[in-house]
Write a structure and sequence with these properties.
Layout lengths: L6 H15 L7 E7 L4 E7 L4 E7 L12 H18 L4 E4 L8 H11 L5
Parallel strand pairs: 1-4
Antiparallel strand pairs: 1-2, 2-3
Helix pairs in contact: 2-3
């Protein structure tokens, strides 16, 4: 099975493939997380239209926290929830992109839920 890929790359492909096989893309907006050692980002993507509806990142100018800790992930989640409310997002699902639901990814998701976006 794709021996040339690393374990994390195979995990990402597996997760995205499973989500697409469930055919969620046709009816819901995808919340896609990207996490690096220094930053964390999230986007709301409409896969049918192929557009990004709103996004938040720790790379933005004026970001008060650090992107590499859980407090920074919570700030990004709060910023995203505010923008998502303004964009009036409907049904969404969380695409963690192969990252474990732990630490910064979990803190980000919890902050988004606390901001009023249900998934």
């Amino acid at each position: 099975m794709l021996k040339h890929l690393t374990t994390s790359e195979r995990r990402k492909l597996s997760t995205r493939g499973a989500l697409k096989r469930k055919n969620l893309a046709a009816e819901k907006i995808r919340l896609c997380v990207c996490r690096s050692g220094a930053h964390i980002e999230i986007q709301a993507i409409d896969d049918v239209k192929g557009v990004t509806l709103c996004a938040a990142s720790s790379k933005e100018k004026g970001f008060a926290g650090k992107g590499y800790n859980m407090a920074g992930a919570e700030l990004v989640g709060k910023n995203f929830a505010e923008r998502a409310k303004k964009a009036k997002l409907g049904a969404v699902y969380f695409d963690r992109g192969g990252y474990k639901y732990h630490g910064r990814v979990k803190a980000l998701a919890d902050a988004i839920r606390a901001g009023g976006i249900d998934f």
